[in-house]
Amino acid sequence: MRILTAAQTRQADQATLREQNITSEALMERAAAAFTQWLMARQTPADAGEVLVFCGPGNNGGDGLVAARLLHQAGYAVRVFVLPATSYSTDFEANRQRLPPAVPLATLTAELPPVTAGALVIDALFGTGVSRPLRGLAAMVVSHLNQAAARIVAIDMPSGLLADAPQAPEAPVIQARHTVSFELPKLAFLLPQNARYVGQWHTVPIGLSREFLTGAEGTMHFVDATLLAGRLPKRAKFGHKGTYGHALLLAGSRGKLGAALLAAQACLRSGVGLLTVRTPAVGYDILQTAAPEAMALTDPAPDFISELPDLGPYSAIGIGPGLDKAEATKLVLEKLLRETKVPLVIDADALNLLSANPDLLRLLPPNSVLTPHPKEFERLAGPAHDDYHRLELLRAFCRKHQCYTVLKGAYTCLGTPAGELYFNSTGNPGMATGGSGDVLTGTLTALLAQRLPTLDATLLGIYAHGRAGDLAAQHTGEAGLLAGDLTRYLGPALQELTTPDAL
């Protein structure tokens, strides 16, 4: 699905009104009802206690008024507080009139109402229309709620948070425990710098125009199973190991053979037909014992890779896990960049060699896949002022080098040579453990070896990698998750994405 800008979100609302021939008040009722149903599914009236709804003068405040009415009708104790304003939106006024007299409503003043720790607060002060930092009484209210340590649930956006631009330093922003957005996530939800404001985010469907959502222009996407439908074909009945490609991994050095082994196991579990692993001589026994399905091609050097093998047999190559940064290994990387004719995945120490030797970047074959974590990316593309600037650096880097770059994180972001950004939806904090990146390298190399288009292979790989983590965590818990657990769930994760037989 596409990630819309704040302006496009408003356009989606208008397109829905025209297409479905409904009023804006009816759409507001639908949205607030979806929010309220979400809340009631998680908090009974007894658990919620008194619900405090803080409303601004616009349509976000109107959503809050509808939610207050619906909660009251469902038996919740509700109080409403409204920011004073010279004018209120039409839909706000309509829903203020519809609020039952039994629901207390007060206009906020500088003498702010007490909010106890743990109180359930609905933030409906401001939505996506905010374009500058909150000031005056609005800023006071936000600070008051944050300091109260209330259980804040934000409708659509935490008040004061910009949907698709960085915050001004020290700008007052609601710190929500949960944010419930309509239909689609906002870019702001996906960036680390906003985590303390957004909390856990959720989306609820409200029937926005499908035609608008699918046709909206933009370069940002949220990767889910729907977006990936049809990209991973079912394996052929009469397929054989040659059908699914022959991958080469150049990985490992003394003390870091585990990285090579994890990448190899992931590659094998991701459907490759044949796998050869080039390791230093010290890795031979380890590889043959722990990954007997892979062919071991040992280097003459005992502790690191010093020579590039013949590349003729291979349909994709991965390099980097546990590689080390010896001078001879740098020369191997340089020769590989000059000679390879097949898709290339570059990770870990291979990325560090690129950043330490920028001239090598000019040798990157088109459509290479790089998989840096943020620090590795910083060494490649320079430091970022904030998370939004990092995305601009990512776009520029991918365009300049005509490569795909997988910027790893909670919402791993794939940048493409065309400047598109794809944010992954799968994965969990348990994957923040050594070796997870090596598993991703093996997965991507396997999918590219199967001759899938680079964009398809990379999107499938990052999604399946995260999904494997989610499946594994159901058994291990997040704290107990190891990188090796991911390899065992790659097969089920990819099976979920396989295109079924058509009738």
UniProtKB/TrEMBL annotation:
Cofactor(s) needed for function: Mg(2+); K(+)
Residues where AMP binds: K408, G409, A410, Y411, T412, G437
PROSITE patterns, per the entry: YJEF_C_2, YJEF_C_3, YJEF_N
Keyword Nucleotide-binding found: yes
Limits of the YjeF C-terminal domain: 224-497
Residues reported to bind K(+): N60, D123, S159
Domain (YjeF N-terminal) ranges: 9-214
Keyword vocabulary terms for this entry: ATP-binding, Isomerase, Lyase, Metal-binding, Multifunctional enzyme, NAD, NADP, Nucleotide-binding, Potassium
EC number(s) reported in the record: 4.2.1.136, 5.1.99.6
Xref: Pfam families: Carb_kinase, YjeF_N
Record note on cofactor: Binds 1 potassium ion per subunit.
UniProt binding sites for (6S)-NADPHX: 59-63, 127-133, 156, 259, 322, 373, 438
InterPro entries, A to Z: Carbohydrate_kinase_pred_CS, CARKD, Nnr, Ribokinase-like, YjeF_N_dom, YjeF_N_dom_sf
Keyword Isomerase: yes
NCBIfam families attached to this UniProt entry: yjeF_cterm, yjeF_nterm
The protein's role, per its UniProt record: Catalyzes the dehydration of the S-form of NAD(P)HX at the expense of ADP, which is converted to AMP. Together with NAD(P)HX epimerase, which catalyzes the epimerization of the S- and R-forms, the enzyme allows the repair of both epimers of NAD(P)HX, a damaged form of NAD(P)H that is a result of enzymatic or heat-dependent hydration. Bifunctional enzyme that catalyzes the epimerization of the S- and R-forms of NAD(P)HX and the dehydration of the S-form of NAD(P)HX at the expense of ADP, which is converted to AMP. This allows the repair of both epimers of NAD(P)HX, a damaged form of NAD(P)H that is a result of enzymatic or heat-dependent hydration.
Identification of the protein by name: Bifunctional NAD(P)H-hydrate repair enzyme
Organism of provenance: Hymenobacter nitidus
